Amino acid sequence: MRGLFIHGKGDVRVENLPDPSPDDTDGVVVKVERTAICGSDLHIYHGDLGEGSFGIGHEAIGEVVEAGSGVQRFRTGDRVIVSGVVGCAQCGPCTRGSVTSCENDGGRVFGTNNALPGAQAEAIAVPKADTSLAKIPDGVSDASAVLLTDILPTGYLGAENANIAPGQDVAVVGCGPVGLMAIQTAQLFGPRRVFALDRVPARLAAAKALGAVPVDASSDPIAPILDATDGLGPHAVIEAVGGEATILTALQLVRKGGTVSVVGVPGPTPMPFPMGLALVKNLTFRIGVCPVPKFWPHLVPLIAEGRLQPDSVFTHEMGLGEGPEAYALFDSREDGVLKVMLDPTR
């Protein structure tokens, strides 16, 4: 089969790989029907998360084509969403869907090293299938299903951790795909306004289309939001970039007693934390990796009922065989690209 491999900074290749098989009796093999490139994949692409050669990608949906004898909830022929992160399936947190709090495996992510295969491939072996998969129900498009593998739950985590109350002001720093998901899910909590900060015109336009107030961050992004909030700042700020400058912007922007929720993935370089600023503002700071399966029961019905319509974040679809070009496009932020879908049949 074919799959995308990273061989160093900016070096993504299409390679022929052995066909996968279940890694244990509780695993399955999924024939990948659609996969996508995530912003966190760019950290690997840029060489920020170490070096090495391994299969890349952690967002995939497809059909179960082989199942281990111990798998109980799924069988061959089921079309499924694959969680980008998996746990041991046995400890208390895993059985509750909080796989990132796994007490044994620590929550493993596909396509970040050789421990788990990359999902940007024609097929993928999925361990712990009973807690790592969800069936794709009627009313959920393929695009929405792909978003449910990671970035839609991650955006929702950002909104949930932000402690948003009805009528409050919210800001989202970074309007890449995760930021756009945070904008859409933050609105489930009834905020008065959602301000959206970014420097890329296409991203600001997408945020505006979702009902947010766009703020061009190429100049001072703080002053216009303070002006709009009587000098107080928003009650909650969701940071969806993971950069030192953007996290500092979030901390500066939030009003006293507010909450900063970080779901952006930081790089490996240690960054200073403005402890004094956090202290005088009496703020709450929350950060973490999303336990994807935990939020499926919340989000899948909202998509099926039309209350969440996240598909517009996909602006480009390319074949798996065009993987290197797809990465270059996504990294360039050109041609209005927001998120790239990959078709393994091409």
Summarize the structure in words.
Helix 5 packs across helix 6 (177-186) and helix 5 packs across helix 11. Strands 3, 5, 6, 9, 10, 17 and 18 form a seven-stranded mixed sheet that branches. With 346 residues, the protein is an alpha/beta fold. The two termini are 12 Å apart. The mean pLDDT is 95. The protein has helices spanning 39-45, 92-95, 129-132, 142-147, 151-161, 177-186, 201-209, 222-228, 244-253, 275-281, 292-304, 323-332, and strands at 2-6, 12-16, 28-36, 54-55, 60-67, 79-82, 85-86, 108-109, 123-126, 133-135, 169-173, 193-198, 213-216, 236-239, 259-262, 284-287, 316-319, 340-343. The chain folds into two domains: 2-150 and 291-343, Medium-chain alcohol dehydrogenases, catalytic domain (Quinone Oxidoreductase, Chain A, domain 1), CATH 3.90.180.10; 155-287, NAD(P)-binding Rossmann-like Domain (Rossmann fold, 3-Layer(aba) Sandwich). Helix 12 links the parallel strand 17 and strand 18 (340-343). The longest helix is centred in the C-terminal third of the chain and has 13 residues, at 292-304. It is built from twelve helices and 18 strands. The protein is globular.
